[in-house]
Amino acid sequence: MRLQTLLFLLFVPFILLQACARGHDGTRLEGVTMGTTYSVVISDAAGTDRETLHKEIQQRLDAINGTMSTYDEDSELSAVNRSQESGWLKISDSLYTVISKAVEISHLTGGAFDITVGPLVNLWGFGPDGGDFKVPDAEVVHETLLKTGYRKLKIGLSPPSIRKADPDLYLDLSGIAKGYAVDEIGKYLESRNIGNYMVDIGGEVRTRGNNPDGHAWHIGIEKPLTRKRAVQRVVRLHDKAMATSGDYRNYFERDGLRYSHTLDPRTGYPIRHNLASVSVLHDSTMTADALATALMVMGPTDALAFATRNELPAFFIIKTDDGFIVQHTDEFTPYLNEED
Fold it and tell me: If 0-12 CB within 10 Å is exposed, 13-18 middle and 19+ buried, where does residue 16 land?
């Protein structure tokens, strides 16, 4: 029961979806993957075999989860994490794609995103080992931090491979794998000549074409409320992906202090700033997923400066003593629903 609960908490959606306008709902396919739910809405599914489509989508998601999950002891990633090999480890093309993008984002963000953060995630009780949430001693945090660091991970292209400078290096892809899976399902749909769709896995979303009513897909960014759900703003998307990261649902409390599941890989501690939620738009859901995580780690001031400097469409919800305020980059403005 503890593992099932943790899975849900780790991957609970951070955005509400308003995939279809009023009227025709299109074809909707739903299921479970990566400890959360997925939803695929297709506008132009005429002539397609719904059952076959659903089955093949589930098979692809199961394969991705079987490659990248830290919760599955038989996954490829778990084998990589167990390996004490000091040389190059050959990995699958899909795992290489995700790890190489993760390393790229790590360099871009100065380590605010780092898939080697796994030992710290486990230390704070948010990883697959489960156990009671606890506040570790500062010395233990420091010692664990020494076992992490994206610069200790090298990647090779031909053949796809990685090398761990520290054999105990432990990778956690939870901040990027869902985005990759969304992109892969989108590619599969396009291979079936489906050009109008929305794919959502745990709040990471990819859209193509129009919704079933022939308009932009309407995606609602959730208000960062702990005990209820409501929409903060609605975003209109054509051929775009959006990922959202937040700290308002997955946390634990000790002695009156809240400890977020979002850890700063640079310090080893949960984030303590007042940025409640950040949403990022990109052509790639995988990239948006990683960048949203990185911006969440940075905090409101540094995240806004980074997004502005890199001309990144980003939307921020910030906690104040009186509630919440929102900020966004100029690049995000064209996507905001004018009726809000």
Answer: middle
> How far is the C-alpha of 21 from the C-alpha of 79, rounded, in Å?
44
- Is pLDDT at 254 greater than 50 in this prediction? yes
pTM: 0.90
Q: Are 242 and 279 contacting, i.e. CB atoms less than 8 angstroms apart?
A: yes
Q: Which helix (H) or strand (E) holds 293?
A: helix 285-298
Work out the pLDDT band at 223, boundaries 50, 70, 90.
confident
Give the pair of three-digit tokens for residue 339.
């009726």
| CA atoms of 311 and 333, how far apart (whole Å) | 12
- As a residue count, the chain comes to 340
**Cα 46 to Cα 14, 21, 83, 204, distances in angstroms:** 31, 19, 48, 26
Residue 6 has pLDDT above 90, yes or no: no
Q: How far is CA 263 from CA 37, 113, 138, 141, 257, in A?
A: 24, 10, 14, 12, 15
Count CA atoms closer than 13 A to 112's CA, side-chain side: 18
Mean pLDDT is lowest, of 8-17, 24-33, 171-180, for 8-17
Q: In the chain, pLDDT over 90 holds for what percent of residues?
A: 74
